[in-house]
Design brief:
Layout: H1 27-41, E1 62-64, E2 85-92, E3 110-118, E4 125-129, E5 135-138, E6 141-142, E7 149-150, E8 153-157, H2 161-178, E9 184-188, H3 190-199, E10 203-207, E11 211-213, E12 218-220, E13 224-228, H4 230-238, H5 248-268, H6 275-287, E14 289-292, H7 298-309, E15 316-320, E16 323-324, E17 336-337, H8 339-351, E18 355-357, E19 365-367, E20 395-397, E21 402-404, E22 409-411
Parallel strand pairs: 1-14, 2-9, 4-15, 18-20
Antiparallel strand pairs: 2-3, 3-4, 5-8, 6-7, 9-14, 10-13, 11-12, 15-21, 16-17, 19-22
Helix pairs in contact: 1-5, 1-6, 1-7, 3-4, 3-6
């Protein structure tokens, strides 16, 4: 049993590993590994390929400064990133410069907010999706021009933070919400999702019935598996009314179907050795992303990516921030956090302690009845023997839902 294995799965997994070490790689192979690993793990259609090492792309990268982000001295040598890290991925719904398909809505909201945590021993990764409609406290955020701060607010949907104070404000809000330091962040646009899902060659996605959502344009006529890229991938990821119960919580578990498949796709196909796909990913990323300024350094980016590449599928876990709908007061018509389960989750994450997901993947997904036979993933090189930490030590966290990248699931359509 891995640290983050869902209780309801029968997939056999190895024991809890510690202190895995990663081998160094030459710069060109490192580029390939980085693009694949970051695309697979960090978020909506490969959002963290920020650390592209091809020199001609670096001038395209836009950056912002995160308030209080630490300065860790000189960047690491390639492959030498020490310890774990926290990385926030934000997907913007801005229509500016996104083409005619996006419409003319002038708003700028964070459509996706996902926090990636890599453990200190580099053997596990957890990506926590925060519902865009969840009402949270927004702290005082610095103004973009550096002249003062915006005032704090006690109860606002988290997707307002991007419009309120940009990427730095979203980072500060998630930091306050989770209690985790977040030194790294990236912002991706609609066009970035379209271009990058196309560059990777499409992502196979299973649905358990016909999926149609006129709000995003997704129209899949029957149950089955579809390889989605371009606009279709974006429409699927953004669909809320077409999946689950039509709520933002259903959409998150449906997105995790896509993300888990994306991880498997990148790890199994020719993405890491296909120069055309590599170039397309690099170009799409740098033209459609904004990074925290401490991510523009090439060595830091690539070294972080090598850590992600070495983590097995069953130790890459997608989790929904514990929350619910149907609560009144300031949460009326929105999403309310579940304080108890959330505290338990982030206590485990912060301490790098093992935990087991509650049964069920969420409102918008179900197990894939045609999933291939389960196999046991090998332990990372240099890790402790499986018997060193018994699987029984992993505590089940009630109310914490999600799946690992090794779990095959289908989006549950909203009939």
């Amino acid at each position: 049993m891995s640290e983050f294995r869902p209780r309801s799965r029968s997939r056999a997994v190895d024991g809890i590993a510690r202190h895995g070490r990663l081998k160094k790689s030459n710069p060109y192979l490192t580029v390939l590994k980085f693009l694949g690993a970051a695309v697979a793990v960090v978020a909506v259609s490969a959002a963290s390929v920020a650390g592209i090492t091809l020199g001609q792309f670096t001038t395209d990268i836009k950056t912002v400064h995160l308030a209080g982000a630490p300065t860790n001295g000189p960047p690491p040598d390639l492959g030498s990133y020490d310890g774990g890290f926290n990385f926030l991925l934000v997907g913007s719904d801005t229509r500016q410069g996104q083409g005619a398909y996006a419409g003319k809505d002038g708003g700028v909201l964070n459509d996706v907010t996902m926090l990636l945590h890599v453990s200190q021993d580099q053997t596990n990764a957890v990506a926590v999706s925060i519902p865009r409609d969840m009402v949270v406290a927004i702290p005082s955020c610095p103004k973009a021009d550096g002249k003062g701060n915006y005032g704090a607010m006690s109860a606002q949907p988290i997707n307002n933070t991007l419009a309120y104070g940009g990427l730095p404000c979203t980072v500060l809000t998630v930091k306050k919400l989770t209690g985790l330091d977040i030194p790294f962040a990236a912002l991706i646009t609609f066009q970035g999702v379209i271009d990058m899902s196309t560059a990777v060659g499409g992502v196979p996605v299973c649905i358990n019935g016909p999926m149609k959502d006129p709000y995003t344009g997704i129209n899949l006529p029957a149950a089955g598996t579809y390889t989605l890229s371009g606009f279709d991938a974006l429409a699927f990821l953004r669909s809320r009314h077409g999946v689950g119960d039509g709520s933002d919580l259903g959409r998150i578990s449906s997105q995790q179907v896509f993300l888990s498949s994306l991880v498997r796709t990148v790890k199994s196909n020719s993405t890491l050795t296909d120069f055309t796909k590599l170039y397309g990913l690099a170009s799409a990323a740098t033209k459609n992303m904004t990074l925290s300024d401490n991510l523009k350094n090439l060595n830091t980016m690539v070294s972080m990516a090598l850590v992600l590449k070495g983590i097995p599928l069953n130790r890459i876990t997608f989790v929904q921030y514990p929350s619910t709908t149907g609560v009144g007061g300031v949460y009326s018509g929105k999403v309310a956090p579940l304080t108890g389960p959330a505290t338990a989750l982030f206590t485990k994450i912060k301490a790098d302690q093992p935990f087991v997901l509650d049964s069920g993947t969420g409102r918008g997904s179900v197990s894939d009845p045609n999933a291939p036979a389960a196999t046991t993933a090998p332990a990372p090189s240099g890790s402790a023997a499986p018997s060193a930490t018994p699987a029984a030590a992993a505590e089940v966290l009630p109310g914490v839902l999600g799946q690992t990248a090794a779990d095959y699931t289908c989006s549950k359509v909203n009939n």
